[in-house]
Amino acid sequence: MTQGPLTTEAGAPVADNQNSETAGVGGPVLVQDQLLIEKLAHFNRERIPERVVHARGAGAYGTFTVTADVTRYTRAAFLSEVGKQTETFLRFSTVAGNLGAADAVRDPRGFALKFYTEEGNYDLVGNNTPVFFIRDAIKFPDFIHTQKRDPYTGSQEADNVFDFWGLSPESTHQVTWLFGDRGIPASYRHMDGFGSHTYQWNNEAGEVFWVKYHFKTDQGIKNLTAEEAEILAGKDPDSHQRDLREAIERGDFPSWTVYVQVMPAAEAATYRFNPFDLTKVWPHADYPLIEFGKLELNRNPENIFAEVEQSAFSPAHFVPGIGPSPDKMLQGRLFGYSDAQRYRIGINADQLPVNRPHATEARTHSRDGYLYDGRHKGAKNYEPNSFGGPNQTGRPLWQPVAVTGVTGETVTPVHAEDNDFVQAGNLYRLMTEEEKERLVKNLANAVSGVTRDEIADRAINNFRQADEDFGKRLEAAVQALRG
Ligand code: HEM
């Protein structure tokens, strides 16, 4: 801000910012006190709607550096050369809590990353978990309603949470993950990130690969126990946000090593798990992690509202060489995010400083709307035109995908080894005895808050189907707690 006297919004100097204007000493306030009216009116409009999910978060800018050649898989320009760097913005979040909720809670963490590439912004909107609770976007609003506040009690209710999970057995894998040690990261710096969905990479020759992204924390994984988190959440609700800001302020820049799993397109149809089912991982033995980058966070935002609250990520923001997969969840998300932002921030959200392209510019024929900044000046606003306006390229960002059959409300296809429990059971069996004990204890504490037996029994039964021992122990622990 430049130096000089305090002014009104219109730039006129302000004489008195402490006393409003009255009719005589002690008299009522005058409408002609436009400074008072302007201040109260602006104050009344300070908030925008919080994100319907992931409302609570913290962000930072950084740098992505390519460390290995992946040009045989993708023609994305920002991945074209070893050593190439791209500016990024990453917003971490929790899912269920409101804007002012505590950070140290058991909840997945958002890991939303914007690459400001020379071919436009590429948004990878992932989580700190490789899988998710459901596999069809049509279930997402119902799922989130069970995680948020009950319409009658106004609180999160164990009945709703476990009712939905019990009736949606595909959630068993993600719930097992969530109630394990990684369910409460010690900070945003000490957790991994995942693209979670399968995405398409395509190379110059037009060959297609299905990929999954992994961001492994260089700080090491650190988690909080349920007991530690309860204390921290009460003492310092902003713990994770503060930790991130302070680390960057002291030059202790957090970083992640970036990997990709690559499946040649021809292998998708016969892979043992449906590669487009978000409740499943691809075991590394099937598709090993290929290291290709380093992500470092090195600059704090200067204004949280402008740069974090108004940041807008969309899984539909792709660049040439990268595209969606037929994952039904992802397809729903391709619509959901920009639509949410049109409501939450406005139709020109993508042109705010944090959201607009930094390494190129947006050249569209769209115009106007709330808070349009006039950036197109007098340029023509239609195509085709004879005035040298921007033109279509004729080259799609991603390759077409073959489809068969007729339209209909279809169930996600099941591959040879797919069922709702196999990977949850595998995860349980991978745990040490101590990890299993903590998992069962965390889950039992949560399930014991359920008021109806059939809801608790159904939820427990899902874990029994994942692993007999898991189910037995959980049942016993819940019984002990409920008396
Ligand atoms: C069909 C399923 C889903 C739908 C409809 C959905 C919808 C949304 C919406 C509407 C927002 C708020 C966007 C905004 O206001 O800016 C959001 C935020 C977010 N979602 Fe999803 N979501 C889904 C699944 C997922 C999955 C599977 C992941 C991770 C793999 C995910 C990660 C995130 C993250 C990280 C944010 C916060 C982005 C930010 O920091 O601004 N969501 N989601």
Can you walk through the features of this model?
With 483 residues, this protein is of the alpha+beta class. The protein has a domain at 57-131 and 185-351: Catalase core domain (Catalase HpII,  Chain A, domain 1). The chain has 12 helices and 10 strands. The protein has helices spanning 34-44, 140-147, 158-167, 172-178, 226-235, 239-249, 304-309, 328-344, 422-430, 433-447, 453-466, 468-482, and strands at residues 57-66, 85-94, 109-117, 120-127, 193-194, 199-202, 208-217, 255-264, 290-299, 322-323. Strand 6 and strand 7 (208-217) form a beta hairpin. Helix 3 (158-167) crosses helix 11, helix 10 (433-447) packs across helix 12 (468-482) and helix 11 runs antiparallel to helix 12. The model has no long low-confidence stretch (mean pLDDT 97). Bound molecules: protoporphyrin IX containing FE. Residues 51-54, 57, 91, 93, 110, 112, 125-127, 132, 137, 140, 196, 311-313, 329, 332-333, 336-337, 340-341, 344 line the site of protoporphyrin IX containing FE. Protoporphyrin IX containing FE is lined by residues 51-54, 57, 91, 93, 110, 112, 125-127, 132, 137, 140, 196, 311-313, 329, 332-333, 336-337, 340-341, 344.
Explain briefly what this protein structure is:
By secondary structure, the chain is of the alpha+beta class.
The gross shape turns out to be globular
Main sheet, how many strands, which sense, barrel?
10 strands, antiparallel
| Percent range of helical residues | 25-40%
What is the chain-wise order of helices and strands? HEEEEHHHEEEHHEEHEHHHHH
- Strand composition percent: 15-25%
Number of helices in the DSSP assignment: 12
Task: Return residue spans where pLDDT drops below 50 for at least 5 consecutive residues.
Answer: none
| Assigned CATH architecture of one domain | Beta Barrel
Cα distance spanning the termini: 64 Å
Q: What name goes with the CATH superfamily of one domain?
A: Catalase core domain
Backbone CA Rg: 25 Å
Give a count of the beta strands, DSSP E runs of length 2 or more.
10
The kinds of small molecule bound in this structure are: protoporphyrin IX containing FE
User: Average pLDDT, to the nearest integer?
Assistant: 97
CATH domain topology of one domain? Catalase HpII,  Chain A, domain 1
